[in-house]
Amino acid sequence: MSKRIDVKDLNVYYGSFLAVEGVNINIEAKSVTAFIGPSGCGKSTFLRTLNRMHEVLPGARVEGEVLLDGDNLYGPGVDPVSVRTQVGMVFQRPNPFPTMSIRDNVLAGVKLNNKRISKGAADALVEKSLRGANLWNEVKDRLEKPGSGLSGGQQQRLCIARAIAVEPQVILMDEPCSALDPISTLAVEDLINELKDEYTVVIVTHNMQQAARVSDKTAFFNIAGTGKPGKLIEFADTTTIFNNPSQKATEDYVSGRFG
Amino acid sequence: MTVTAPVARKRSALTKGQLPAFAPYVVLAVALVLGAAILALIGFNAFGWGLVSAILFAIGLVGWSAAVEGGRKASDKLATCLIVGSFLVALLPLISVIWTVLVNGIPGIITPGFLTTSMNGVTGSLDNKSVDEGTKVLGGIYHALLGTVQITLLATVISVPVGLLTAIYLVEYGNDRALARAITFFVDVMTGIPSIVAGLFSAAFFFAVVGPGTKTGAVAAVALSVLMIPVVVRSSEEMLKIVPNELREAAYALGVRKWRTILKVVIPTAISGIASGVTLAIARVIGETAPILVTAGFATTINNNVFGGWMASLPTFIYTQILNPTSPSNPDPSSQRAWGAALVLIILVMLLNLGARLIARIFAPKAGR
User: Fold this and answer.
1) Averaged over A134-162, what is the pLDDT?
2) What is the Cα–Cα distance from B296 to B290, expressed in whole angstroms?
3) ipTM rounded to 2 decimals
4) pTM
5) Which chain A residue is nearest to residue B257, measuring alpha carbons?
6) What is the pLDDT of residue B369?
7) A81, closest residue in chain B (CA to CA)
């Protein structure tokens, strides 16, 4: 249940503004890939092109190819909705649906699409997803309570459970721990380590220690200056990026000399 | 270092230079007495007494505070006096209206049969008789109440789908396109349409389509819809706008289609605001008089068919009872009925407002633990 992603010469635009330029990257299946780089360098923007969430914003568009196991996401006639069922996403701020209970939040991907599901199958899916998100023990007695009553870290793990309940091939995480305290962050990081057994995980983070802890490969993005497009500077094994980067800019960034 | 025990003092050094807690009451009492004395010189009346006392109170309290507490506290007290004063001024007409309607309306609505009979067969001679012999006033507002409920209900049924769908288009699909901007502009214009113009539009429309002289409850409902739709669009639009974009993106990221996201995520999240907005829009049009006069006429009998025949409503009932009393020589029974109808109308509006709060509370996303 995981697919690889290959990106070829991708340019990402907001209207006429070129935000990210010329990205080529190959993301292995069942691996954790971290995107690091200074603010505004286009990491999140690029991440959102991997499940066609970028085009939700008015005027946003993309040139180039993103191949999911060889199939171009941006090919003619591709339905962005079917792309998103295969490539799930967890956002920076926990965003459980406020009108739904914890259980309904986990089942949101199924219920909102009006798929029929028996109660037994639904219960099994809820338990499997919540266990997968390391949240089951904390919420199993209050599944009918609103999801918004959980703590921030629990809400974020609920959002991860919601994402894995639709059984995607790839999970994208956009700074999933930036709004969480260290203990919740640890819980989410442990979870990411478990998730890579089944899913391809791509994570954007501002925290370099986190990238070093959780990822197999790391991509460093940088921007030449305000108004210039962001670029992929270096993509290699995480140990290489942090210990022996080939680019001067990467070394400056990971050693804290700039950014 | 030796620990010095705090010196026992009558007043804390931190509360020095403050007016005692009873200061406002003292100033108020003095202001009331002085105000009464001044008014006694030029002829006493309650309104003048209140006004003069209020001014004296403000001057006295602010002056005392300035002398004891200094400029900052004094300006704080001045601001408090001005704010409380404005609040009382704003409250005055409201209390006055409710009081007047209660005093004049209660004899009307406690008359047996007031809520359950129509004006069918109630003539001037019956009114004259009730005045001469002191018997109870015959006739009631049942037909008007029924008409108001039916017309308003039909108007709501027309306005809510149109208004809500327009708001959904503006927020979810408009993207600031020329069409969306034009709709926003015309909705703003519609908000300012005088109600009589809406009535004339509806009457003219039905005269042209159905036939001259078409006056039914439905024509009135259309006229009210013209007034209601912009209110519904505006309030629903605001409610849909404050639904966080993150929720839409969360749904999209789960592979949910846009229309389903709107139907299952956006609208349920905003439903409490939308529902109370609709209720307030109903409250806004339920008291409209002019558009109903030109579209539904005024009936004195019960009409259960919104699509045929003239129909009474509470506002037009009040209007005709006051302007053309049933017995021109004895207008008192008619005005009693009119005040009773006014009280019923105010109670209806109040219930609608309470209903709006209740709806908002019931539908609001729960944040329990």
Assistant:
1) 88
2) 10
3) 0.88
4) 0.81
5) A81
6) 47
7) B255
